[in-house]
Specification:
single chain; about 120 residues
Length: about 120
């Protein structure tokens, strides 16, 4: 089996797995939206008997707004921050890691080509 075939099989397997996961996440997102809709509708119906239809919808909308603000606050608090000047000095180490990976790949390719050219 040639190296190109091995690489193409590995890449196709990786992308296939990613595509399957993305499909599962998309289906899960549709069901989550359906659950949110049904819970909002049920809450509106339950609250409309007590507070009336207008106030029931305002209460449900207020709860939804609080949930959205909470999620936005969590996303804002966990965002990627820019690195300070002292930590930015470690950025060349990432290039060093990339160079090591490139050397490993290059040595594997060289070993493969030398092993293939061997006279039997």
């Amino acid at each position: 089996m040639r190296l190109e075939h091995i690489v193409s099989l590995a890449v196709s397997q990786m992308f296939g797995r990613l595509i399957r996961r993305a499909a599962v996440y998309a289906v899960a997102a549709v069901f989550v939206l359906a659950v949110i809709y049904e819970l909002s509708a049920a809450g509106t119906v339950a609250l409309s008997d007590i507070y009336g239809p207008v106030y029931a919808r305002l209460i449900v909308a207020g709860i939804d707004a609080v949930i959205v603000l909470l999620l936005a606050t969590i996303l804002f608090a966990t965002r990627a921050r820019s690195t300070p000047a002292g930590i930015a000095a470690s950025a060349p180490l990432k290039g060093l890691t990339d160079a090591r990976i490139a050397m490993l790949i290059e040595s594997a390719m060289l070993g493969y080509s030398l092993g293939r050219n061997k006279q039997r």
